[in-house]
């Protein structure tokens, strides 16, 4: 399986489809690392390690792409932004966003947005088993509703075999999402870049691809794994 993925990575690289090739390179590296761990033959281990080193060299391990979402633009649901980076090897996700709070806020639906994001992870094709959330406490009277909502999401995810860990920080400012295959996405507005729906029965209320967006910037990075071979 690893050889086929690497072959595909090379083909994409030669076709100048660098973003897709990097995904395949990373997946191939991870598959080979699993083989190294399972192999007892030292000669084979040495050959696999050499191949992994070559792949790390060719893939470079560095990538940066910027997406500009214009005011009132549509077609930017979570699947649109994240799906291509959620390869089958993704099992762990980190979300840092200071505003995962309750819906009492006039312009924010962040708790529902986080739920939608989790639903996307559950649907796959990745096999996420752990989601780590770092956010800040709601200020004022919304704290108990915030904690209650997050605990409800936590329990619901547990029914799907996914563990949600929740931590709070008063100093968190950055908004970023990281996957354990090396991809990191930074959104200027975090998960809350959608505008408030016009009504509960308006187009775009359920389908985020049809929901108008606030203007924001999305930066996508990839950093080379530092796993011990």
TrEMBL record:
GO annotations of cellular component type: midbody
Alphabetical list of CDD domains matching this protein: MIT_1, MIT_C
Chain ranges of the MIT domain: 2-56
GO biological process, any: midbody abscission
Domain MITD1 C-terminal phospholipase D-like: 75-222
Protein known as: MIT domain-containing protein 1
Gene name of the record: Mitd1
